[in-house]
Design a protein that fits this description.
Largest sheet: none
Shape: elongated
Structural class: mainly alpha
Strand content: under 5%
Amino acid sequence: MRWYRAWRKGGREGLGRSKPLGRPSQLSPKQLERIETALLEGPQAHGHSTELWTLPRVAAVVEKLSGVRYHPGHVWRVLRGLGWSLQRPTLRARERDEEAIAQWKRQDWPRAKKTPAGTGP
C-alpha cells in the first residue's frame, strides 16, 4: 500500500529511491579511507604476530584511528562497506616440505604407530 500511495501522490517520480533506512554510519568517508589504508598495511604493521586480520583486530584499528568503537561482531559491516570479503587462510603452510613428510611417513610413522595386541613391525 505504501508504494501505491507514493505513486498516487507523486507519480512515477514518487517511486524513486528513498533515503536509506537504519542508523547512519558513524564513520566519515575520510575515516573509512584511513582505516582501509591501515588494513592494507597488514596486521603485523599494527603489532600483531601473524598476517591474519580477525574481527577483534579490525575493531581495535577502527577504534584507534577514528575513536568510534565497534563490537567485533559488527565490524564486518564496515569491511563489507569497504568492499572487503571473508578470506580464509590456505590449509597448508607455504613452507611445507612434502619430501620430508613422505620420508617421515616411510621411516618414523611405522615405528610410532600402535598395532593391535602389540604385533607389528
